[in-house]
Backbone:
């Protein structure tokens, strides 16, 4: 077959792999910060991003528009974080003796402990915290938040409204 380029499955996979790695590398730091903000724990954020990267790789072939990798990957990260938050609600936490505390350099945990606003956001429901994080931390429009979460725009607006009301109330602001 002179004049024709034959692409083997291995070559196609290598090309797809290169494209995926390039796209993922551009988004991974923002994804880690988003996961850390949502989960409030450095280790959980690392695990969540790793899980999201694996899911994205497995579904890479289903992404039609490679330029839409960022929003698509954000949605995967948010869904992984949502699943982790649900699992943690079913776990029972046991207080350990303070003498046995281990020092930690977990930036996300210390942020929630030290920052009054972050701590208040951490006490919101999981759904409200997701909307707050995507709207204000990721600086997305309400339409983009709705797209990332797969929710109707009205639901996103409602969750944002009630989350902001709860934050105002908790932080001593007036409640409208």
Residues:
């Amino acid at each position: 077959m002179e004049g024709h380029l034959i692409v083997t499955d291995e070559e196609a996979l290598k090309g797809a792999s290169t494209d995926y790695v390039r796209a993922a590398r551009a988004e991974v730091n923002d994804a880690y910060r988003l996961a850390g903000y949502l989960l409030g724990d450095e280790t959980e954020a690392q695990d969540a991003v790793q899980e999201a990267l694996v899911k994205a790789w497995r579904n890479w072939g289903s992404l039609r528009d490679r330029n839409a990798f960022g929003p698509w990957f954000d949605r995967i990260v948010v869904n992984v974080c949502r699943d982790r938050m649900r699992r943690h609600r079913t776990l029972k936490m046991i207080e350990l003796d303070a003498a046995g505390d281990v020092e930690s350099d977990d930036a996300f945990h210390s942020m929630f402990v030290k920052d009054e606003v972050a701590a208040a956001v951490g006490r919101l429901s999981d759904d409200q915290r997701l909307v707050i994080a995507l709207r204000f931390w990721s600086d997305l429009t309400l339409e983009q938040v709705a797209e990332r979460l797969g929710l109707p725009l009205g639901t996103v607006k409602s969750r944002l409204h009630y989350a902001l009301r709860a934050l105002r109330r908790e932080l001593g602001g007036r409640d409208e």
